[in-house]
């Protein structure tokens, strides 16, 4: 999901009620998607993977607040919440990396001491590297924000980082409002994107692992087949419940305004 500024494209923008009655421009990428497939992709990318309005809007409100004191306060609130999110993502990514690195010592379910298929090992090793990069990007962003915050003009420098490209602020041609840099918005989402992809790799690897043992002898309904079926049922139910929870937390961009 992209956040194309009309600085670069002349598409129309809708308005979203902001803090204190201010209105902010909603990027074209947040317009209501058409079609069931596009709505599903928009839902999947909305926060749990790609950045959504909850990432973009607070930055735009902060950049365009007219009162200097309120602008600094919003910047501080954004900084504090961002650091808390990075800390949480870093801890979860470290735990996931620990689980993935321990997969080599898991009980071998393949008969005759056979090695795990290359697809299983590949999925888990990909999950390990993605988890490590989630930790790395979270640590990098935390250190950068901490260093920026120690400066005398900390809040101003943070806003410059989020809004300026090649030394110039990006402004909407229609509204004149400062627009966050699209690259920065996606960069801020990198730790979550790495973590989510690593989790998917681990789940895929587990499916491949249990079914690799069951697929050796399809004619017999043995213990490996029973284990694979039980695991698949539990995993499918867990995934379904997870997405049901995401649906309950999802706020579509075309929903009614609530004041």
Provide structural commentary.
- The protein has 259 residues and is mostly helical.
- It has one domain.
- Helices cover 61% and strands 6% of the residues.
- It contains 7 helices and 5 strands.
- The strands form 2 sheets. Strands 3-4-5 form a 3-stranded antiparallel beta sheet.
- A hairpin with a 2-residue loop joins strand 3 (164-165) and strand 4 (168-171).
- Helix 3 (68-101) runs antiparallel to helix 4 (118-149) and helix 3 (68-101) packs across helix 5 (154-163).
- The chain is elongated.
- 26% of the residues are buried.
- Keywords: Membrane, Transmembrane, Transmembrane helix.
- Residues 1-28 are annotated as: Disordered.
Number of domains: 1
What fraction strand?
5-15%
State the helical fraction.
Answer: 55-70%
Radius of gyration: 23 Å
Structural class: mainly alpha
Number of strands: 5
Main sheet overview: 3 strands, antiparallel
Overall, the morphology is: elongated
Mean pLDDT: 77
Give the N-terminus to C-terminus distance in angstroms. Answer: 26 Å
Main sheet strand line-up: 3-4-5
Poorly predicted segments: 1-32
- The total count of helices amounts to 7
In brief, what are we looking at here?
This protein is mainly alpha-helical and 259 residues long. Helix content is 61%, strand content 6%. It contains seven helices and five strands, in the order ββαααααβββαα.
Secondary-structure blueprint of this entry?
Elements lengths: L13 E4 L5 E4 L9 H10 L7 H12 L3 H34 L16 H32 L4 H10 E2 L2 E4 L6 E2 L2 H33 L8 H27 L10
Antiparallel strand pairs: 1-2, 3-4, 4-5
Helix pairs in contact: 2-3, 3-4, 3-5, 3-6, 4-6, 6-7
């Amino acid at each position: 999901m992209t956040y194309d500024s009309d600085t670069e494209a002349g598409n129309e923008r809708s308005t979203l009620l902001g803090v204190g009655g201010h209105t902010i421009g909603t990027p074209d990428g947040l317009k209501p998607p058409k079609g069931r497939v596009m709505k599903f992709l928009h839902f999947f990318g909305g926060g749990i993977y790609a950045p959504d309005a909850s990432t973009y809007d607070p930055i735009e409100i902060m950049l365009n607040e007219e009162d200097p004191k309120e602008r600094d306060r919003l910047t501080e609130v954004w900084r504090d919440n961002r650091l808390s999110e990075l800390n949480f993502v870093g801890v979860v990514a470290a735990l996931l990396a620990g689980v993935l690195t321990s997969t080599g010592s898991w009980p071998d379910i393949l008969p005759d001491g056979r090695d795990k298929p290359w697809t299983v090992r590949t999925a888990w090793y990909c999950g390990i590297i993605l988890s490590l990069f989630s930790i790395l990007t979270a640590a990098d962003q935390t250190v950068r924000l901490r260093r920026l915050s120690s400066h005398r003009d900390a809040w101003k420098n943070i806003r410059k980082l989020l809004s300026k490209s090649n030394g110039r602020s990006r402004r909407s041609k229609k509204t004149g409002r400062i627009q966050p840099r699209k690259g920065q918005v996606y960069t801020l989402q990198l730790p979550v994107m790495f973590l989510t992809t690593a989790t998917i790799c681990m789940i895929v690897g587990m499916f491949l692992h249990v079914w690799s043992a069951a697929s050796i002898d399809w004619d017999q309904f043995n213990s490996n087949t029973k284990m694979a079926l039980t695991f698949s049922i539990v995993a499918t139910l867990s995934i379904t419940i997870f997405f049901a929870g995401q649906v309950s937390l999802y706020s579509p961009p075309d929903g009614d305004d609530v004041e």
